[in-house]
């Protein structure tokens, strides 16, 4: 009889445990008409919901327990996560309706979110900091716990700084402690999974964006190089033109000097040797073996190479033209 009673009690306990076991459901997160991720919540919650004066409200049940979720709120990069939290706490401290119970870093959540975000190329080098804030809001008669996850994401050409909010609030009349709320909120956070197709699409967009940026950078570099080469060519052309004008000027000046002093510039076409002679003659000859031995005449018949002595061959010179 005792054995039968024990079996009956065990069956009753098993049935009781099954009856109170939590049933969950998965909710798709829709951003701009695109499903980006999924989270898991108890099946008695309605998602998504709108709650007056609570823009972060995401899910709510009949007992007025609310899950909060807000993503990608931009913050100035110059403000550190710790400073941002301190500013928020200072703001709350001035509100007589809010009492901060405690706040502290949440490194385990940070590690999970970093691992989750490692699927996304553009977040692969991000830095993160996560803080948990436990507080009571007497104006709403609520006990709440919030997790603020800060992302500092290096991008080509700049840095993007954002934060995500995960939260859970419950009426003061609810018997749950902050420890219980923290456990329930952590389950909500750890259930946040990215949609596989969205990850693939986001990564493809990142790759294409990087390619486009690289192409623009290369095009800009090539334009700068072309501008530089054009400038250098213009300088070279100007220098060449200047040198050419200088040579012409020098030639004109030398011609003027020669004309003034009645000098004639001559050259040996065979050797390239140059000679300068006073006065102007149409026919000029020089002995290559003795430059001082020269003959100058205007008579084409006076060729010194006819009947010359041994060793006195003359080379006819030409006018040197600059």
Characterize the structure shown.
The protein has about 325 residues and is an alpha+beta fold. The chain folds into 2 domains: about 180 residues, Protein Transport Mog1p, Chain A; about 60 residues, no CATH class. Helix content is about 40%, strand content about 35%. The strands form 4 sheets. Strands 3-4-8-7-6-5 form a 6-stranded antiparallel beta sheet, with helices on both faces. It has a 3-stranded antiparallel beta sheet with strand order 1-2-9. The longest helix has about 70 residues. It is rod-shaped. It starts with a helix and ends with a strand.
From the coordinates shown, what is the CATH architecture of the largest domain?
3-Layer(aba) Sandwich
Q: How much beta, percentage-wise?
A: 25-35%
Secondary-structure element string: HEEEEHEHEEEHEHEEEEEE
Radius of gyration: 48 Å
Which CATH class of the largest domain applies here? Alpha Beta
CATH topology of the largest domain: Protein Transport Mog1p, Chain A
Distance between the termini: 137 Å
- Residue runs with pLDDT of under 50 for 5 or more positions: 1-19
Major sheet details? 6 strands, antiparallel
Number of helices: 5
> What is the SS-derived class?
alpha+beta
Number of domains: 2
What global shape is seen?
A: rod-shaped
Quickly list its features.
alpha+beta; three-stranded antiparallel sheet; rod-shaped; Protein Transport Mog1p, Chain A; 322 residues; 2 domains; six-stranded antiparallel sheet
Give a brief outline of the structure.
The chain contains five helices and 15 strands. It is an alpha+beta fold.
